[in-house]
Design a protein that fits this description.
about 270 residues, alpha+beta, eight-stranded mixed sheet, about 35% helix, disordered N terminus
């Protein structure tokens, strides 16, 4: 994985046809990928995933229902995989704590059903050309504008986080590079019981404490690999036991080994 010398406002050059070759921008609260998308293993992650592809992709859910679609919204913690084909696409991963994730990640019907994912992405059908031509830093606001029509049935904001949640998230960030992050230690730091803090975090983030910690570790490791460090160094910087632990987590979360992402150029702010 390499870091591009370009700024995130640069437009993409010619796109190679191999899967998982493209550009990515990792910022607090979201990850944007633009490039070729290909098959993955079955996986689930703690982000809301939004997809807009130039040509249809096969998305398969945990019950082996498959939809062929150019657009989808996949809720957090929902097992899925891409099967068979490749396509030029934009994919956005939204942290569950963000307002954008709350706005986009609630589906009518069964959230585990691939058909619901395609229905939720209907407003993005045909938008891949526009999104892939934009400077990558402009992709998320344009995508959300297309996905959430003015008015609509979505609420425009989320309740403010409990002050203890804000303090707990900051405390988690401080502890991540040092290895084990224990709920009891974080709860003590913010002056709450572990049960009370666990309840508040789950309500605010949409996922329990331990999965959230794993998700943040993986994001940190990706950022380090993008900066040119080895898998082992990236794993240790994020608090993983070793590179094998990082690789297993990457498979579970993205359906891909970290080495698969070496063709992704991470754009940096200057």
């Amino acid at each position: 994985m390499t870091v591009s010398a370009h700024t995130p406002d640069d437009r993409p050059g010619p796109v190679p046809r191999q899967p998982w070759r493209g550009q990515a921008l990792l910022r607090p609260g979201h990850l944007i990928y633009r490039g070729m998308v290909g098959p993955t293993g079955s996986h689930a992650h703690h982000a809301v995933q939004i997809l807009a592809a130039a040509t249809p992709l096969n998305l398969t859910d945990a019950a082996d229902h498959t939809v062929n679609t150019t657009a989808a919204v996949i809720p957090a913690n929902t097992r899925h995989r891409i099967t068979g084909n490749t396509a030029l696409a934009v994919m956005v991963y939204l942290d569950p704590s963000t307002t954008a994730a709350h706005l986009t990640g609630r589906l009518d019907g069964d959230p585990a059903d691939a058909r619901r994912w395609a229905s939720a992405g209907v407003h993005l059908a045909g938008a891949a050309g526009t999104l892939t031509d934009l400077p990558i830093a402009e992709v998320l606001p344009r995508l959300l504008h297309l996905l959430i029509p003015s008015g609509g049935h979505h609420r425009s904001s989320t309740p403010p986080a409990h002050p203890a949640v804000t303090r707990a998230l900051a405390d988690i960030e401080r502890r991540l590079p040092n290895g084990t992050v224990r709920l009891g230690d974080v709860a003590t730091a913010v002056g709450l019981s572990p049960d009370r803090l666990a309840h508040l975090l789950t309500a605010a983030l949409g996922l329990p404490f331990r999965p959230y910690v794993r998700w943040r570790r993986l994001q940190i490791a990706i950022a380090h690999v993008a900066a040119g460090t080895t898998l082992t160094s990236a794993a240790h910087a994020a608090g993983f036991a070793d590179s094998a632990h990082l690789t297993r987590t990457s498979h579970r979360t993205f359906g891909l080994a970290p080495s698969t992402l070496t063709g992704v150029h991470f754009l940096t702010d200057r």
